[in-house]
Amino acid sequence: MRHTRYGYWLEEAGPVEPTRPLTGDTTADVVVVGAGYLGLWTAWQLKALEPELDVVVLEAGLAGHGPSGRNGGFVSTLWDDLPILRDRVGDTRAVEVCHASERAVHGVGAFCEAQEVDAWYRLAGTLQVATSEAQLGDWDEVVDACEAVGAPAEAMALSHDEVAARCASPAFLGGVLLRTAANVQPRGCRSACVRR
User: Fold this and answer.
1) Do β-strands 181-183 and 155-158 pair in parallel, antiparallel, or remain unpaired?
2) 77 near 176, Cβ under 8 Å?
3) Which residues does residue 55 pair with via DSSP β-bridges, in sequence order?
4) Could you tell me how far CA 10 lies from the centroid of its own chain?
5) If both were cysteines, with which of 119, 130, 178, 195 could 184 make a disulfide (CB 3.0 to 4.6 Å apart)?
6) For the chain, how far is it from start to end, CA to CA, in angstroms?
C-alpha cells in the first residue's frame, strides 16, 4: 500500500463526479457542515425521518477527504469511552449509549446492504496494540469498566501470544480486542446521499 497526502481510501475510491457548488445565497431546513461520516449519515437519517425536509450538505473539499477518508474507514462503538461515560452520566446511561453505538455500527452495514452501497463493509473487532513496554496496560481502565458493568466481552485484554495469533507482528507486545467494530470504504455513503 502506498501512502499519499489524502490516504489510501480516497485514492482507491477513484475519481468523484463533483456536485453543484454553492454559488450564492440559499435556504434550507437543515444545513450540515462537513461531508464526512457524521455529516453524510446525519443528512441521510434526516431525509429518512422526514423525506420532504430540505437538507443541504456543505463540504469545502471532497466528501470524506478529512479524517473519515484518512482513518482507515473505522466504524467504532463507544465502549472504549466507557470510563468517561460512567463518570459523566452513570453506569446505566453509559451502557445505553454504548449499546446505541453498537446499533449504529450494525446500522451502517444494514444501510450498505439496503442501498446496495459497495462500501466494503466488514464487521470485525478492533485490535489496539502496544508496541512499547510503556503502552502495555493502556487499556486496563476500559477493560475494568466493561467488567464492572457486566459487559466483559466488549473489551478483552490480550497477551502477546493472543495478539500474535490474530496479527503476527514481532512489534506487538500485547493489546485489547474491542468486540464490535467494522471497516468501510468512506466514499460509499456519498453516492447514496447524492442519489437521495
Assistant:
1) unpaired
2) no
3) 30
4) 16
5) 119
6) 33
